[in-house]
Design a protein that fits this description.
By secondary structure, the chain is mainly beta. The chain folds into 3 domains: 4-104, no CATH class; 114-200, GroES chaperonin (10 Kd Chaperonin, Protein Cpn10, Chain O, Roll), CATH 2.30.33.40; 208-286, 10 Kd Chaperonin, Protein Cpn10, Chain O (Roll), CATH 2.30.33. The chain has 2 helices and 24 strands. The chain has helices at residues 62-71, 218-224, and strands spanning 13-17, 26-28, 33-35, 47-49, 55-58, 88-92, 95-101, 105-109, 114-116, 120-125, 131-132, 135-136, 147-152, 164-167, 173-174, 188-191, 195-200, 203-206, 210-215, 238-244, 254-257, 263-264, 275-278, 282-286. A 7-stranded antiparallel beta sheet has the order 15-16-10-13-14-17-18, with no helix packed on it. The longest helix is centred in the first third of the chain and has 10 residues, at 62-71. The chain is elongated and about 80 Å long. It starts with 12 loop residues before the first strand and ends with a strand.
Length: 290
């Protein structure tokens, strides 16, 4: 009986066998061998297979932590302090394994379809054309920062496959590094809470927990009669809610929000000067005087 066969994994965890390149100092690119010694975390494994051969994906940071949990850390600061670990590495013969919580998983791949898990969605850059999960993505613009096309979602809801979404900056995580013998090259993973809007027919629609607003300039709006302002009102940051997700209490209202809490949206036809804010940044609904 092998070492891993003697391990009874706790219900909240999963045991995954790491790819064959794990802990190797080079990657074969098909032309040359590329040294990865100085980039251990960047080129750490981000997928593994269970005992049934099903592939699971996870973050690249876990393998280094798993090794430290199993075999110790070279960081002198860790040697005399308690360090909690949620992942654990196992070496059985020539093979490497990792035990990690199921809550850390990005998704599952059965060889044909990818199913995201734990509030993640699978995406490709906006404007790409590629068949996946039986769907061909439409050709749009060239690649744009913070825009993506959804390729797979955990369940059908307000987010759907082929939705064009806008996200916070630097939240798109590559599913696999190109030099790590990827089976899903070019895809990245995004946490749902980092999605701020959907783009539909050149119009922005707020994602859950977000509001798309147009700030109110007191001087301009008072002269048009849109809103009646007194001296104290000029001290408030007011905005008209242009788009709210279904069920939001702020739909169609004028709100008071904090300074510098919005993210500017690129201009679209008939939609200029818009910002997206989190609902938690709303302090009050402003009621216009009759």
């Amino acid at each position: 009986m092998s070492l891993v066969d003697r391990l009874q994994i706790s219900p909240d965890n999963i045991l995954l066998k790491m790819p064959s390149y794990t802990e190797k100092d080079t990657r074969n690119t098909g032309v040359v061998d590329f040294a990865v010694v100085d980039e251990a975390v960047r080129y750490a494994p981000t997928r593994g297979t269970d005992s049934n051969g099903t592939t699971y994906f996870f973050g690249k940071q876990y393998w280094q932590s798993a090794k430290e949990a199993a075999w110790g850390s070279e960081d002198e600061r860790d040697k005399n302090d308690y360090v909690g670990h949620s992942v654990f590495a196992v070496k059985d013969g020539a093979d490497f394994y990792m035990i990690l919580p199921k809550a850390h998983l990005f998704g599952i791949f059965n060889g044909a379809h990818f199913m995201p898990m734990n509030n993640w969605v699978l995406c490709r850059p906006y404007g790409t054309l590629m068949a996946f999960n039986g769907i061909v993505e439409p050709v749009g613009k060239e690649y744009e920062d913070n825009f993506a096309v959804i390729t797979a979602v955990p369940e059908i809801g307000e987010l759907r496959v082929l939705d064009v979404i806008q996200t916070l900056k630097h939240c798109d995580l590559p599913l696999e590094e190109v030099l790590n013998e990827p089976i899903l090259a070019g895809y990245f993973i995004i946490e749902r809470e980092n999605i701020i809007s959907k783009l539909m027919n050149t119009k922005y629609h707020a994602a859950r927990g977000r509001l798309i607003v147009k700030p109110i300039d007191p001087e301009k709006e008072e002269s048009t009669g849109f809103i009646n302002l007194d001296a104290d009102t000029h001290k408030l940051n007011l905005a008209q809610v242009v788009s709210a997700y279904e069920g939001s209490q702020y739909a169609g209202t004028t709100i008071v929000y904090g300074k510098n809490s919005g993210i500017a949206l690129p201009s679209m036809p008939e939609q200029e000067g818009l910002f997206v804010i989190a609902e938690q940044d709303v302090f009050a609904i402003y009621k216009n005087q009759a």
